[in-house]
Design goal:
The protein has 295 residues and is α/β, with parallel strands linked by helices. Helices cover 38% and strands 19% of the residues. Bound molecules: glutamic acid (GLU).
Length: 295
């Protein structure tokens, strides 16, 4: 009997700690396109374990932005803040199996945290964009995975959620590449299969520095371009080209066309420079197309 093909599931897990960054829009877009191209699901999960920095208004605006862009999620919306009991179950199991332990930290006042018992080994993974990546995890020591059994930290929550949602492909910014070895160690400890990884090149400003809110202000957020009147079609088209090329001369694409031609293999390794002039050009092209269609 032929083996049933595994369903592709990607995810977009924003932290609702600020307005949607243009780089995260591109991450969401690539995840969406890749899932749809393969008849798979695109899952959205709100990573709100950081109670102090997460805000409902940011979550609402992120979800509204995805809708405006036409990136429709599959399945229910997950919130990490509602999944404490689930994480606790895994944490307890790790502790019971001696793969994690409660440690009393004496920096400042005494407090207890949960540390992962690092097996100290080389972790190797085949990144779909960057090729083979190898890390010596010894330098990570016994890293902290939870502030307490009720308060898991990012790495643990991500691994459990990706596992429980059946995520097959983790497509995210290159700034997360150093998180991957920790997450692989946790996967192995809980017995989760390893998803395939694709780390996207960073989006850079014209001076080739990383596009960051601290340095570049509001111009890093989707809302900035939306307020300036750029259409969702143009933003999607432009962001798709930022770090990927179709291998042909074509530059103007609708979302269904992108789904048709997109290929992770054609995503570049090097950083991509954000150029508003090019976005404006793409915007005009879409505007003219719209006029022709409406005639
Ligand atoms: N919540 C993380 C972020 O917004 C994403 C984590 C991930 O993609 O694994 O940067």
């Amino acid at each position: 009997m032929e083996k049933e093909k595994e369903k592709i599931v990607t995810r977009f897990p924003p932290s609702p700690t600020g307005p949607l960054h243009i780089g995260n829009v591109r991450t969401a877009l690539y995840n969406y396109i890749f899932a749809k191209k393969n008849g798979g699901d695109f899952i959205v999960r709100i990573e709100d374990t950081d109670k102090a920095r997460s805000k409902k208004e940011y979550e609402d605006s992120i979800l509204e932005s995805l809708e405006w862009l036409g990136l429709k999620r599959d399945g229910e919306l997950l919130h990490q803040s509602e999944r404490t009991e689930i994480y606790k179950k895994y944490l307890q199991k790790l502790i019971d199996e001696n793969k994690a332990y409660i440690s009393t930290e004496t920096e400042g006042e005494n407090r207890e945290v949960v540390r992962f018992r690092n097996p100290n080994k080389f972790v190797q993974f085949d990144d779909l964009i960057r090729g083979t990546v190898e890390f010596d995890t010894t330098e990570l020591k016994d890293f902290v995975i939870a502030k307490s059994v009720d308060e898991p930290l990012y790495h643990l929550a991500v691994v459990i959620d990706d596992f429980e949602s059946g995520i097959t492909h983790v497509i995210r910014g290159e700034d997360h590449i150093s998180n991957t070895p920790r997450q692989i160690l946790i996967q192995e400890a809980i017995g989760a299969p390893r998803p395939l990884y694709a780390h996207l090149p960073l989006i850079l400003a014209r001076d080739r520095s990383k596009l960051s809110k601290r340095k570049h202000g509001e111009s890093v957020s989707l809302g900035y371009y939306r307020d300036k009147g750029y259409s969702p079609e143009a933003i999607i088209n432009y962001l798709a080209l930022l770090g990927w090329n179709p291998g042909t001369e074509q530059e103007i694409f609708t979302l269904p066309e992108l789904i048709n031609v997109f290929d992770l293999k054609r995503v570049h390794k090097g950083g991509a420079i954000f150029d508003e002039k090019k976005l404006a050009w793409v915007n005009r092209k879409h505007f003219n197309l719209g006029k022709i269609r409406n005639k």
